Amino acid sequence: MTTPPGGNPFEMIFSQLGRMLSTAGPVNWEMAAQFAQWTATEGNDPGNVDPLERIRLEELVRVADLNVSHVTGMSTSATGRSVTVRPVTRLGFAVETLEAWKPLLGALAAALQPPATTDTPTLPDDLGLGGEMGAGLGQMLGPLLPGLQSAFMGMQCGSMVGSVAQRALGQYDLPIPRPVGDELLVVTDNVTAFTSDWGLPPDEVRLWICISDVAHHAVLGRPHVRASLEELLLAYMSGFDPGGVNLEGRLADLDPADPEALQSVLGDPTALLGEMQTEAQRAILPRLEALVAVIEGYVDHVVDQAGRRLISSYGPLTEALRRRRVERGQGERMVERLFGLALGQGQYDRGTSFVSGVLERAGDTALSRLWTDSHALPTPSELDAPGLWLERIDLPRDD
User: Fold this and answer.
1) Is 369 helix (H, G, I), strand (E, B) or coil?
2) Nearest partner of 98 among 172, 20, 161, judged by Cα
């Protein structure tokens, strides 16, 4: 299914409804792609990236790479090759991000699938379809429900990713691992809008983004860090209770002849939420929050160390970017809630306090031990008491 520039994907759904509803699997990825692209561009032609953007960003990412390596003492590469950067439009970012997040979004969709049932769906009495007609429609609706659920998830996932693309500056605005590689994405439309809104030097903003994303990439490129974060994210997203989404109840309000009705019933990005969090998820959350907080606290430390030397407007630029970071958009907030990421100011402060506490007690050498192996990752209680973490990592190990 292809949406023309400016086209409404809801209208495209109705033009190919039969094929859409016959799609198997928990997520209709074709529909997800269309909604991601349409939401990211708001139906407008995204245009092309200026070739000069690529040239300038390639120069800046080399500077960022050298300085992040110097501060961290780590290789920034996940593959052994050089870290590179690719400038993209919001559309390009949405396409790449949807593909990168498929394993996580697929786990979420599978968790939200209602249990299989052999019961014939019942239609509300107030539809005025009683007797044999009502029973016949109920029987007809039954086989369509898996396709409707798949379409619903496709719309939700696509709308969410598209909303993220409208604001993201780089690929690690949200600290979510991507497939192993050494290419970073920078969303030039959003960088241009941000520099204009705040009256900041464009090249200094680009360099700050490169430093931040290269630092994230260095940490998430450590195999044990990536594995730990992916495991926690997958476990959290697989733990949702399918009772939280009453798709059949939403369909009772649907006028099948009205595309706007479909949009109002299925197009709300918050429709997936509600009271879905389970006890299993609440048990996972402290470990997930602790790992994300220490990653963000460490990256902020690296950006401070490198950025103060390289960026003349570092103070006001950093303040503007960090204010923007905690003033998330709707799509980012939804990702945070669905992925179990709590990225309010409190979480950033926890990570910063941990890093500061380690540096005050034992200096950079101790801080660099954070990423040596999974044993060195702080527990939730250690995150709030860095002295405990230092004591534990110095204890003899049985392994």
Assistant:
1) helix
2) 161
